[in-house]
What does this fold into?
Amino acid sequence: MYLGNEIKGYSYSSDGSKNVTDMVLGGYKNNTLTSSRGSVRDLILKYGANFSFNNILQDFHTYPNGELGATQSAPGLSQAVTGLQSDKPQICNTTFIILYRIQNQATPAEYDYTHEYIPKSKK
Amino acid sequence: MLGVSSYSLYAQNKTIKGKVIDDNLNALPYVSIAFNDSIDVGKTDHNGLFQISIPATVKKISFNTVGIELASIELADKCDEVEVVMMLRCTCDFMAPKKVDRLRMKRFKKLPQLHKEAFEKGKFKTDKACYTQEFIPYYSKVQ
It folds into this structure.
């Protein structure tokens, strides 16, 4: 199904391994082709006291238009990188990726921008 | 169960309780609560409820969690029931920085209206906040 909207979500490993047990997507009704929102609320509600921020494997969002935007060309101005700066200290085991569309390719490409994170002490 | 904490280094503390929801009016669990930007004093429970004990002199507290914009509030006197609406963070990577902040400000200005809506739907106990909330621009350097 093609939504025509960007989506944001998280993958999670309930046993703390690298095996994905859950994928959660943010609501996409109010998203657009170039913007999305999402939180880990549903994962916390599912796992209750057993939930751990350390078990979030990936924070991902999609770029259906196939471009990487500011995250690649100007990370200092990127909203995705702003989110990375804010969230990484809380989910330190998580990789942050963009899934973007490649023409004539069934599966999306991945762009890992976790390396753009700058710890506060180095700023 | 409420996320309860005490900060025993200070002689005189005050207790603040309340609830945190997102701008879709969903309760937000495991939101970290801090003062002076870094001193953690507790978390919300699974229903978004919290009860914290902070030094009586502290006015500013902040709320932070994954995927949501940090909310920084300044308490008024006798403000001990704190109900907060937090904004989901937008990826918005294909917009000019100024436009992103304009859109954020537009949503930020709707927070009192959402607070009232939460009250009308029985999610909040109060119809308006007893604190002021600061808008934190992302791109003040380039504006």
In short: DSSP finds two helices and nine strands in chain B. The radius of gyration of chain B is 15 Å. Residues 91 and 100 of chain B are 10 Å apart (CA to CA).
